[in-house]
Amino acid sequence: KGICMHSTQDQAIHLEEESNPSATPTSSRKMPKSISISKQLASVKALKKGSDLEKAIATAALIFRNSSDPDGKLGKATAKNLLQTQFRNFTEGQETKPKYQEILSELDEHTENKLDFEDFMVLLLSLTIMSDLLQNIWSTKNEK
Is there a contact between 14 and 29 (Cβ–Cβ < 8 Å)? Predict the structure, then answer.
């Protein structure tokens, strides 16, 4: 490979491809586990002085990208796994709620259908809105 002249932002996007020269177009685009999300965030130049909200959305975007396939889509089984591992404080205790059951059953059905980033963010927001943790966050805000 020749020397690549990319901006810092591009380096975050292409880091995995350059670190794995044997990668083929059909291989997974997952980032190596050794590169933490915080290091990936730090490599995005525009976020150096980013707000907490900007960093939160960028973190969600990086987690989505690291888990997505080469087409930028997330398999439903992978999405479900992410919810159970990366979003468990929001999903914990929600198992008895009909809306939660509906969302999870949708992830189990039609598994050939994949989620794009917008679908993934809507899924996160839907689960956040119904979560007990959100209610806890609202009540903490009022306890100044």
Answer: no
